[in-house]
């Protein structure tokens, strides 16, 4: 039986097994880890009537050693079947003529829970499989939602500690409050004077720093990642594409085998990349509609084939998408060309000049599979207000970007293929903006939670109740230039 191995998108990483790939998190050459094997197509009929745990088991075990399928089922049961999610896990609701897959029903009210509830189980299982006795230091950069979901997932997990870096002025007040009130003996939350890209770049550099590698050896530590650069973040996200599609089949909204479109609010691109893998596993997806905010670097890439990071960075009312370096796009380029040397050339150009442009043959595949658009901040608010008025469905700012971009796409193309929008966060994570969009009034974030609830009668998620009164436990703030030194000091203290 052939072992399933993982290689780097840049071609200079020794093959790793699944467990090593989870634990290492990123390629030793700075690339991202991808399957080095042909991914099996799935039988949709066989998946159709499975609950979320069993469907996750069938899909995720495609990427793991064959002899641990029942172990994977137990990990999925712990992540998704232990009361942290509703029984349906991902409800699919209607907003007018659109379908909305609610990925925010987990313990932190954001879609990152879908993967970060499982990643700690992947991590501890992999540690056991490899007989690893070193302390694992998890590093994560966040533009808002990854941080809290990772902290909640890894808190008090034996053998691990987690360091989360967030831009002090680049997340919503609710997102920040969720992080700085986080409990757990092994968690550390650090604000940085900079933006998300600064934090993400520093975390990536940490994995390839010889100085930090030497410190890790001296102090019996190894570094891993909770960001979507870790393949263990990506694989669980494939599941909800199958689940939401098959929900529509079971509800007789579509026939098994019908093509559908997915609209995806996109920042670091992991969410959409999981869908692209699902398509390659046999899910009949016609188009991925990539939705960006004013930081519309992905829109430009999908329209032109050129990735140009030499542009102004904007702080917007959809802060989790305030990103100019979309890490998982590197994986997509690799999947489209299957040429690690070419990917390395592109990434070297990006590092040196801030720009790369893919070949015509790659761009043709891009255009075949993807469409893209973006919304400015005023249009985000208008979209929330209009959607609520017309359909009664309450969007958060990020999902509103998806909703508005889909409406643009429909107008431009008249593509009547049924569409699922991935809803990435509860509207109560951005209550000030959402309340303003619905009522035209401006309120303090915490006042807006109660007022929004009274106005719309949409329930406040349990994780977001009583946020204002929670004790602040984390107050560290550092300059972006000192992140690597800070990590080094933390290694020495373990």
Verbal overview:
There is one protein chain. The protein is an alpha/beta fold and 494 residues long. The chain has a domain at 92-111 and 232-460: Rossmann fold, CATH 3.40.50. The chain is 45% helix and 16% strand. It is built from 21 helices and 16 strands. It has helices at 18-24, 44-47, 52-60, 69-80, 113-116, 119-130, 145-154, 173-180, 196-207, 210-219, 231-250, 270-280, 297-304, 329-337, 340-353, 360-369, 377-391, 397-413, 431-439, 445-456, 483-493, and strands at residues 5-8, 16-17, 33-35, 92-95, 98-102, 135-141, 160-167, 187-193, 221-225, 260-265, 285-292, 306-308, 355-357, 370-374, 419-423, 476-479. Strand 4 (92-95) and strand 5 (98-102) form a beta hairpin. Helix 1 (18-24) crosses helix 6 (119-130) and helix 11 packs across helix 12 (270-280).
In short:
The chain is of the alpha/beta class and 494 residues long.
Radius of gyration (Å): 21 Å
Which class do the helix and strand fractions yield?
alpha/beta
Biggest beta sheet summary: 6 strands, mixed
Please, how many helices? 21
- Record field, number of beta strands: 16
Portion in strands:
15-25%
CATH topology of the domain at 92-111 and 232-460: Rossmann fold
Arithmetic mean of pLDDT: 96
């Amino acid at each position: 039986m052939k072992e399933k191995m993982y290689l780097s998108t840049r071609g200079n990483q020794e093959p790793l097994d699944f467990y090593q790939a989870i634990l290492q998190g990123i390629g030793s050459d700075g690339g991202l880890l991808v399957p080095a094997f042909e991914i099996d197509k799935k039988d949709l009929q066989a998946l159709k009537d499975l609950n979320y745990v069993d469907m996750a088991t069938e899909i995720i075990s495609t990427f793991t050693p064959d002899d641990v399928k029942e172990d994977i089922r137990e990990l999925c049961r712990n992540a998704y079947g232990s009361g942290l999610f509703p029984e349906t896990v991902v409800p699919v609701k209607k907003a007018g003529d659109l379908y909305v897959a609610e990925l925010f029903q987990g313990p932190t009210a954001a879609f990152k829970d879908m993967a970060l509830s499982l990643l700690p189980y992947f991590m501890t299982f992999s540690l056991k499989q490899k007989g690893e006795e070193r302390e694992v230091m998890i590093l994560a950069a966040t533009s808002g939602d990854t941080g809290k979901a990772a902290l909640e997932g890894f808190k008090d997990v034996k053998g691990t500690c987690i360091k989360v870096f967030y831009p002090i002025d680049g997340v919503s007040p609710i997102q920040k409050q969720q992080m700085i009130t986080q409990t757990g003996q092994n968690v550390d939350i650090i604000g940085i004077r900079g933006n998300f890209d600064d934090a993400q770049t520093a975390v990536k550099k940490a994995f390839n720093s010889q100085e930090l590698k030497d410190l890790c050896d001296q102090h019996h530590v190894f570094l891993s990642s909770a960001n979507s650069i870790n393949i263990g973040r990506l694989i669980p996200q494939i599941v909800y594409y199958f689940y939401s599609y098959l929900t529509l089949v079971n509800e007789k909204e579509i026939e098994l085998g019908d093509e559908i479109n997915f609209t995806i609010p996109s920042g670091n691109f992991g969410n959409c990349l999981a869908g692209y893998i699902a398509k390659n596993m046999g899910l009949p997806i016609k188009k991925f509609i990539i939705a960006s905010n004013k930081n519309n670097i992905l829109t430009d890439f999908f329209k032109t084939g050129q990735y140009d990071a030499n542009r102004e960075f904007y702080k917007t009312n959809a802060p989790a998408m305030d990103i100019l370096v979309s890490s998982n796009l590197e994986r997509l380029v690799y999947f489209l060309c299957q040429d690690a040397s070419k990917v390395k050339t592109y990434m070297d150009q990006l590092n040196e000049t801030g720009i790369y442009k893919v070949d015509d043959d790659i761009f043709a595949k891009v255009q075949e599979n993807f469409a893209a658009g973006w919304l400015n901040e005023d249009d985000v608010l208008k979209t929330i207000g209009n959607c609520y008025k017309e359909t009664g469905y309450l969007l958060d700012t990020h999902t509103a970007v998806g909703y508005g971009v889909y409406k643009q796409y429909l107008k431009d193309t008249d593509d009547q293929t049924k569409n699922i929008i991935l809803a990435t966060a509860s509207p109560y994570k951005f209550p000030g903006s959402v309340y303003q969009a619905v009522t035209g009034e401006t309120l303090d974030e915490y006042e807006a939670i109660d007022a929004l609830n009274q106005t719309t009668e949409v329930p406040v998620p349990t994780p977001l109740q009583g946020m204002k009164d929670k004790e602040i436990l984390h107050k560290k703030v550092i300059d972006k230039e000192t992140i690597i030194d800070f990590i080094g000091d933390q290694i020495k203290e373990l």
